[in-house]
Amino acid sequence: MKIACVGGGPASLYFSILMKRVDPSHDITIYERNPAGSTYGWGVTYWDELFDNLYAADPESAQTIKANSVRWNTWDARIHDRASVLIEPGDEGFGIGRRALLGILDERARSLGVRVEYEREITGQEEVADADLIVAGDGVNSALREPHAAHFGTEVRTGRNVYMWLGTTKIFTSFTFSFVETEHGWIWCYGYGFGKDHSTCVIECAPETWRGLGLHETNEADSLSLLEKLFAEVLDGHRLIGRAQPEGTAHWLTFRTVTNRRWFKDKLVLVGDAAHTTHYSIGAGTALALGDAVFLTEALHETDDLSQALASYQKERQAAIKMTRRAASNSAHFYENLTRYIDLPPMQMFALLGQRHSSWLRRLPPRVYYGAGWLGTRMARLIPARLIPARAPE
Ligand SMILES: Cc1cc2nc3c(=O)[nH]c(=O)nc-3n(C[C@H](O)[C@H](O)[C@H](O)COP(=O)(O)OP(=O)(O)OC[C@H]3O[C@@H](n4cnc5c(N)ncnc54)[C@H](O)[C@@H]3O)c2cc1C
Fold first, then answer.
1. How many domains does the structure of the chain reveal?
2. How far are the Cα atoms of 142, 189, 245 from residue 248, in angstroms, in the given order?
3. Angle at Cα 81 formed by Cα 356 and Cα 188, nearest 5°?
4. Closest atom of ligand 1 relative to the 123 alpha carbon
5. pLDDT per position as a tens digit, 147-176
6. Is the domain of 136 the same as that of 45?
7. Residue with the nearest Cα to atom 52 of ligand 1?
8. How far apart are CA 371 and CA 170, in angstroms?
């Protein structure tokens, strides 16, 4: 089969690896608009279940990914000036730099005979029309999806809060949440390690806080300097870094949740963020992109009928990620409605933070939810028993 993958992100690269493993005669080319070794963002998180799935699909790349990841099993949550807790031992989590992950997948794909063409932007399907299968792994703003938005049933919901995906030289050894109150409202960060020199620090706030702090009109350097002051305690005097590459720039963004009713049209199929995005606060988008690759590969090798294979991929994969998508939407809702929770007694707030994936949390008054012991999810079951005050709540 002649396959063109547009976009050299985790979804396309992993799909090409799995296809080559199943049948080395596949002729696969990946087209990536950016130069090799350059990417957006910093580190991404993943969980043990993902590693098990990766290991089953391709042990070689799974082992290299794990060897290049950092791990943590404690969670550090702080409400500035009020309380902080260390939750241990929590679920084991992993972090890996996006650049390292893409480098590993690129090398593995090439070793199996995949051609990866960097600095090659594909602006329309006609440029790769001679392929038997065209994989749109071109991310959230997919150029291949766009002209067929009506067919795919594309819907985009823009989140209310603004965020910036930053790096820092502070090495977080726990997954860290820090909520800071300003005169214009709350601002918070999620920090996690991904390598020996850097950690990720995603900073988020409501638009009113963002404007109130003047972050809508300051340049990058001034924004970072203000954020370093606000998060000085958690950053321990370390700097925030806007750009992973010298030519890049950090931007304030609003998260776009993309959904598509259909995931294929004739020989064009959507994978990863082109098909669906999940709010970053549950750290699952990369894992889902890799999982799409697994499902698509399996579907394509179950039958010789392309449209039957793509229909099966769409049906099975949409069902498999439904719960994760709902969890992501609930988590985004928690942060967009932080004022519902932030003034609760800190231990309750921290417990509910661990419950943010739950649909019931957004429907019930927080105190009722907490009091009724609606602690259904795995993480939430762990939290109440393991909250260890690092500083006594006031
Ligand atoms: C702030 C933030 C934090 C996140 N944290 C996590 C996390 O902790 N864990 C996690 O699992 N996920 C996380 N994610 C989500 C994750 O980054 C994405 O879900 C994942 O990268 C999707 O992979 P992909 O291959 O579908 O798309 P992408 O990684 O976006 O790759 C798409 C590629 O296509 C290329 N491209 C686009 N258009 C074209 C074109 N026309 N021609 C050629 N190339 C093109 C792009 O340059 C890009 O390299 C986070 C996202 C954000 C925004």
1. 2
2. 20, 21, 5
3. 40
4. 41
5. 999 999 999 999 999 999 999 999 999 999
6. yes
7. 280
8. 37
Rg, C-alpha atoms of the chain = 21
| Mutation test residue for ligand 1: of 72, 105, 138, the one with most atoms within 8 Å of CB | 138
The token pair at 163 is 């965020």
For a mutational test of ligand 1's pocket, the pick from 70, 256, 273, i.e. the residue with the most ligand atoms closer than 8 A to its C-beta, is 273
Alpha carbons 253 and 251: distance in angstroms, whole number: 6
Pairwise CA distance, residues 175 & 235, whole Å: 13
Q: What is the pLDDT of residues 112-153, one digit of tens each?
A: 999 999 999 999 999 999 999 999 999 999 999 999 999 999
Any idea what the CATH number is for the domain that residue 56 is in? 3.50.50.60
Residue 221 has pLDDT above 50, yes or no: yes
By residue count, the chain amounts to 394
Among candidate residues 308, 331, 354, the one where a domain is terminated = 331
Whether residue 270 sits in one domain with residue 150: yes
CB 321 within 8 A of CB 365: no
